[in-house]
Design a protein that fits this description.
The chain contains 21 helices and 19 strands. With about 600 residues, it is of the alpha/beta class. It folds into three domains: about 35-295 and about 470-480 and about 535-550, Rossmann fold, CATH 3.40.50; about 305-465, Glycogen Phosphorylase B (Rossmann fold), CATH 3.40.50.2000; about 485-530 and about 575-605, no CATH class. Strands 4-3-2-5-6-7-8 form a seven-stranded parallel sheet, sandwiched between helices. It has a five-stranded parallel sheet with strand order 11-10-9-12-13, sandwiched between helices. Helix 4 packs across helix 18 (about 465-480). The longest helix is centred in the middle third of the chain and has 31 residues, at about 215-245. The two termini are about 45 Å apart. It binds zinc ion (2 copies). One zinc ion binds near residues 498, 501, 514, 519 and 522. The site of one zinc ion has 6 residues, from loops.
Amino acid sequence: MADRPEIRAPGARANHATYARRHAHEREPQSPSRYDETAAHGVEPGPVPSLTIVILVVGSRGDVQPFIPIARRLAQDGHRVRLATHAVFREFVESHGIEFFPLAGDPRELMDYMVMTGGHLVPHHLGQLVEQVPRKREVMAEILASTWAACTESDPARPAASPYLANAVIANPPSLGHIHVAEALGVPLHIMFTMPWSPTGAFPHPFTHVTSAGHAGLRNRLSFEAFDWLTWLGLADLVNDFREQSLGLEPIHLRDHGASVLHELAVPHAYLWSPSLLAKPSDWGPHIDVTGFVFPDETRFQPSSALREFLAAGDPPVYVGFGSCTATDPIALTTTIFDGLERAGVRGLVSRGWAKLGIASAPKHVHLVDDVPHDWLFPRCTAVCHHGGAGTTAAGLRNGLPTMVVPFFGDQYFWGRIVADAGAGPEPVPIDALTAETLADGIAFTLQPEVRARAVALGEKVRAQPGAQQAVAAFYKRLPLAGMRCSLDTTHLARRSCHECRLSLCGLCDAVIHEDRARALHRRECLEYVAWNVTGSPSVAEWLEGTIEKTLGIDDPPEPRKPLRIRDEEHVSPSAVDDATRARILARFESAVQIRVSASPVEGGLS
Ligand SMILES: [Zn+2]
Ligand SMILES: [Zn+2]
């Protein structure tokens, strides 16, 4: 079984095979930030040093959206934040004042693929298998490669921007590279996602349809494990090529739980939905948080005069839209929707979306819209009918709107089920079963007063759970801050440890302290904050080596080879430091030395 990550104490030596055995009790993150309920846990509070954070997101616009407020909040706290996602979202991301980096993959192509296969990574029909899988694997390899570039390279479209090197990673699971780049960099990783991805007995994996009532807990749990295994079988060779060739890491062997590495290593997870809609299962550990839905920051939107006139001309309409889902026959689907709205006797706002809904002249009871922000549009509607994407589901519920879900694939069935179970909408109607009649019946259901009352009550709770704030708090709470702070100023990020000084130092303090000729030759190492032991326990050879060195009294065995480590980029020239700063750092250094001398006279011999 793979070990949980080692969390380094300040000044701890870098990765060594026997470390995990000696310090098993130190593996949990030790020091939460000022955002944690620190007093309650008796842990020292303190600032989070300014970090360079990369957020890796693969998916649709709905997957990217929640990370905009999260990135903005992190940036407001003084961190440098980059949102790395598909190139088509560059303008969307940059329009919010957030740094961007392009990941490979075209979400529209992924979306077509998911609709075609019903959300399965491996298609069910032989023809699709032969035609689609090679292309899909090619894209996956490109995505993996781009996640490393996202952590280490300048934005190719902004060559003048300052160099980039991530010292913390936030990622959604489909970004694939997450744990591997975090391991290569030795930095913290926090998984954030809009749908459940951690095994539980409470409900099935959102991409599977487990319906049998018997042994539900076991079946549910197995559905997660089966999904992980199928994904891993399809990607293992690509992931290992990436680890070996791009990152210089050991490949993951079959016995190393490659399928479930995020769970085995207890990587922190933040799930971005409202616990009032779906509570955290009792079998999820303390490394998993359910934060609340993340809503977009308020958008300034200028409606067209036609839209304004339509809204003013009658009762609030029912919204119908399928977001980024693509339709096999847009005209037929359009006709079904128009007829269904007419049968239900309601006015409709129909979003064209990626399904390309609409015809040249819409009937009087319908108005077609393009890209209207949900937070502007939904408060003006009476009910919503959509595909059940997590973001759209959240937007509807936030506004207290009864919700009809028409799932196309993947987690959309799951959210449809959850909404129906909450009594805030009808049973979900899969897109294949959508007719004018089933649409009209579903809309009629949403118009019942008791359904509206339940949706309104749920909306109040959902609004009271601010997801972005909670997600950022969860991220800070799980950082191994004790090992990330400069020993001389806890607001600085430690970059190196000095063997002789026995201190972890930021670039500035390191430069000032070691400017002194007496200390200039001190051995200093780049710090790794987390040693993700993805490939499991140390090999027999490493273990033997460690044992022999211990027996021989060799205190300082050589580091394992990690050829592509590039953390030593930060070099501060002491001449650039002003006198007051230099004096302050040296004074702190002297008092750190003094404290150690008085605490431990034998070991206090700092030069
Ligand atoms: Zn030193
Ligand atoms: Zn410092």
